[in-house]
């Protein structure tokens, strides 16, 4: 039931998150949306937090037309309570777990246990459409630190108003026949120290940052498993992620080392859609559980899911300054705590 696909591609590094073949979940009918949201939620939440990381390594902005090129990796750590979700029968209309399980691994779980799910949908005439499918296990054991990683390449440019313009950009790119992705991000970091008089002479720098990132990704859903009672035509999974962050940044900037921190707010929204035409095959049972036939149902564009983040964040970090070459690392405390590290070439 599993297959490995590339979900998100950012700049030079192709980062891969194993996604499971989820089209058989459509047998759950009206319950498919909630079940898929519960399964994917930690990956989407972690990715949005990760996309908001790595925007700065100091509260100090560039001089006019100074610039930097930064390569970073952000990793949002998945909390242990996000590795499973509770299966609450009353939340679903047609589903049950025949083997007595009460929890199901999420996509970010370190457990690879596959959960069988039974479907029983009344037809209104005393018969039932019945079927079953398997929820895949998680991929956490295959990822470093069981974290959602996001590599970034960023350009920063000093403007005349003691403001840095920051740009992240990946043009729409295709990988193989069935995967496309692109990213754009923009941020402004404005110096506040200039308004504080004599503090300009101290190694303390204070600034504010506002930044926005959007990521689009899609991949083809192919009809590779002919035993799951779901056939696919023109299948596609589409992800659109929009995130923003607003932060107040402070740093102590010395010749060899910089200490920096921030306090701010994260927000973001993701939509995940399953598009295409799907044919579902169910057995038909009478009230005594006897199979009396089979039925096919056709559905189009069956899933449109939403995921959101909103909340405070605080960051502590340090940067080693070797001339124009910088090495940095920081840690952000938020819903999914995030580790960021990288290198930068910075001039003026």
Radius of gyration from the alpha-carbon trace, in angstroms: 24 Å
In the CATH hierarchy, what is the architecture at level 2? Beta Barrel
The major β-sheet equals:
10 strands, antiparallel, barrel
* Uncertain segments: 1-20
Which percent band covers the strand fraction? over 45%
Structural class: mainly beta
Strand order of the largest sheet: 3-9-10-11-12-13-14-16-17-18
The CATH class, by name, is Mainly Beta
Q: Note the overall shape.
A: elongated
The name CATH uses for the topology is Lipocalin
**Overall average pLDDT:** 86
> How far is the first residue's CA from the last residue's CA?
54 Å
Helix share bin? under 10%
Q: What is the string of helix and strand elements?
A: EEHEEEEEEEEEEEEEEEE
Q: Report the strand count.
A: 18
Q: How many structural domains does the protein architecture include?
A: 1
- Tally of contiguous helical segments: 1
InterPro entries: DUF6588
Structure description:
The protein is mainly beta and 348 residues long. The chain is elongated and about 85 Å long. It has a single domain, classed as Lipocalin (Beta Barrel). The protein is built from 1 helix and 18 strands. The strands form 3 sheets. Strands 3-9-10-11-12-13-14-16-17-18 form a 10-stranded antiparallel beta barrel. Strands 1-2 form a two-stranded antiparallel ribbon.
Which tags fit this structure?
single chain; 348 residues; mainly beta; Lipocalin; 10-stranded antiparallel barrel; two-stranded antiparallel sheet; 1 helix; 18 strands; 6% helix; 57% strand; disordered N terminus
